[in-house]
Write a structure and sequence with these properties.
The chain is α+β, with helices and mostly antiparallel strands. It is about 30% helix and about 30% strand. The strands form eight sheets. A five-stranded mixed β-sheet has the order 1-29-28-27-26, with helices on one face. A four-stranded antiparallel β-sheet has the order 2-3-4-5. The chain is elongated, with a radius of gyration of 42 Å.
Length: about 600
């Protein structure tokens, strides 16, 4: 008989338990292709939100509406002011008075600087206008090589009697003293050590010595003297608003007598309405005259013979708006203060290269940069006001919807669900979803590049480029929102529907707790976007055959309920559409103001 093995005992002498036979663990359930990351899931919060009364909601919604109305009024006032500034101010840097000294030194007032050039047109000195007390729109005439006469003009006082001193300024010492302390808005000329002044506010013509003592004075009906010119012993007067050139006797005996009034016929006055003389100079036995229409929206340069018979019209650039003439070095300079350019013609009327210098170019560039910066600051102000108005209107809409904000139940059914259960059926994703998203993104990128190339080729303005960039940014944000909204999951177990949204938050519901409308299905505060024809996140056959009957057991809600939940959950589609609308409004505003 075989001997029995002694029983195993532990250290205490007690029989030891026999080891349990080894068993292989059951294989883990195979992960379904449509299942979410189960380790990243989180249940939706069951916190109840405080209710708001309807009266309180309506009153709260009125506050942003009132604020939006006030900001809209500020926008209208600011736009009107900026438009007025754009009309009254020149487009480029402003060129002021131009004067020529007896030795052909050229003086140009540019913004707040006085630029001096020698006979060859090279800059010699630069003087700040504030050092002499001369404004940008001052009238300047040379007395001698280093002495000028200047009077500041004040257009704001056009309907009142204006008195301002006539200053005599030394350029070398940068000092000024009043030659006459009280003179109306005037035009003056210097010749033969005499000063002639046409005082438009007092309807008087004065003749003075160099020291300011009066030689003669005469009453003369004046409107707004523009140019007083002494040529070969005769005074010629051009005035704003007058269609005639007035010829006046300058002698002491009979001083101020009007000898004749000549209407300068441009020949094409019926077509151009160039009937109003604006400026007049004499060179090479011809009269050079600037003639314009009544509101000075159009002007031309004309040559007349000694008897003021039209010789011909001189062609100017199409965008030119000439407003002053100066004879310099046997040439005529034509100032276009609106366009910031000084045109130049020889004594026969042939066009030469426009006058420029290093100092003038630098001043014009600085003025253009300042005006560009001012313009874009104005655009930024208006765009900010528009965006603020849109934001306040959206806020008012959200406040009016607060009474309908959804409050999730206190005992969500997902607390009793094992989300890791192998009995959950997850809806498979659409085939080639990633490839479709990449193709859609590539298509949008190609369209964006094509739009930019077309913008560059067509040479659109900087405002157009900025507007195009804003639209492309809004489109890119909308594409990103669409892609993110497709990162959802649908599952079902028995008669319960499981929704997992883009935040990886899940909800479980059945029957009336399931809500749907269009391409959205909801359980409480969790929404899933079912996609569209362009980009569908789920396989259509299982969705229609298996999940759609379960979804149909729920309740079809209205648009307002869907909008409330989309806004409350900050759904990517809402954010994408909101960003696109904001970019679109900003782009349109910039295009209109640019």
């Amino acid at each position: 008989m075989r001997a029995l093995k002694p029983a195993l005992r532990n250290k205490a002498g007690q029989p030891a338990l026999a080891p349990a036979p080894k068993r292989n663990p059951p294989p883990p359930p195979k992960r379904q292709s449509g299942a979410p990351n189960l380790f990243g899931l989180r249940r939706s919060s069951g916190t109840r939100k405080s209710a708001t009364s309807a009266d309180g909601t309506i009153n709260t919604a009125r506050v942003p509406l009132i604020a939006a109305g006030m900001i809209l009024l500020a926008f209208i006032l600011a736009a009107m002011r900026f438009e007025q500034m754009a009309v009254t101010q020149p487009q480029g840097a402003s060129i002021g008075q131009i004067a020529v000294s007896p030795s052909q030194q050229l003086l140009v007032i540019l913004e707040d600087q006085i630029l001096l050039h020698n006979r060859a047109g090279l800059p010699t000195r630069q003087i700040a206008s504030s050092d002499l007390g001369i404004s940008e729109n001052a009238t300047v005439v040379y007395l001698d090589q280093e002495t000028i006469l200047s009077q500041s003009q004040t257009p704001a006082a056009a309907d009142t009697l204006l008195s301002s001193p006539l200053l005599r300024c030394q350029l070398n010492t940068r000092q000024c003293e009043p030659l006459l302390r009280s003179v109306g808005r005037s035009s003056f000329a210097v010749a033969n050590e005499q000063i002639f002044i046409a005082d438009g506010d007092r309807d008087k013509l004065h003749k003075l010595k160099i020291d300011g003592s009066e030689i003669a004075t005469a009453p003369l009906a004046l409107t707004a003297p523009k140019r007083l010119l002494l040529q070969e012993g005769i005074l010629y007067l051009v005035q704003n608003g007058s269609q005639v050139l007035t010829i006046i006797k300058p002698d002491d005996q009979g001083f101020g007598t009007v000898l004749d009034s000549v209407a300068l016929d441009s020949g094409d006055a019926l077509a151009t309405e160039h009937r109003y003389p604006r400026d007049l100079v004499y060179l090479n036995e011809r009269w050079w005259a600037l003639l314009s229409n009544e509101d000075f929206s159009s002007a031309g340069l004309y040559l007349f013979n000694l008897r003021f018979r039209l010789d011909r019209r001189i062609e100017l650039p199409p965008s030119a708006r000439p407003d002053a003439l100066v004879v310099w070095n046997d040439k005529v300079l034509v100032r276009d203060s609106h366009g910031g350019i000084i045109l130049r013609f020889d004594n026969t009327g042939a066009a030469l290269k426009a006058f420029t210098s290093e100092a003038l170019s630098e001043g014009l560039s600085a003025g253009d940069r300042e005006r560009t910066l001012t313009h874009w600051l104005q655009v930024l102000v208006l765009v900010s006001l528009v965006l603020l108005i849109v934001g306040l209107l959206i806020l008012a809409g959200l406040q009016s919807l607060r009474i309908r904000v959804f409050t999730p139940p206190e005992q969500p059914s997902e607390a009793r669900l094992d989300i890791h259960s192998e009995f959950i059926t997850w809806l498979e994703p659409a085939a080639e979803l990633r490839q479709r998203a990449i193709r859609l993104g590539s298509l949008l990128a190609a369209i964006a590049v094509l739009c930019l190339l077309l913008g560059i080729i067509t040479d659109i303005s900087s405002a157009g480029i900025l507007s195009l960039f804003l639209l492309l940014i809004g489109s890119a944000g909308l594409y990103h929102a669409l892609i993110r909204s497709t990162r959802c999951h649908l599952g079902m177990v028995r008669d319960h529907l499981i929704l997992v949204d883009h935040h990886n938050t899940y909800r479980v519901g059945s029957g009336p707790r399931i809500q749907y409308l269009g391409n959205f299905v909801m359980v409480d505060d969790v929404l899933v976007y079912l996609g569209n024809r362009l980009l569908a996140p789920f396989s259509m056959a299982p969705l229609q055959q298996i999940f759609q009957p379960l979804i149909a057991t729920g309740i079809k809600v209205d648009q307002a309920t869907l909008h409330v939940k989309l806004l409350q959950q900050r759904h990517p589609l809402v954010l994408g559409l909101g960003g696109f609308v904001v970019c679109g409004v900003a782009a349109v505003t910039i295009m209109l103001l640019g």
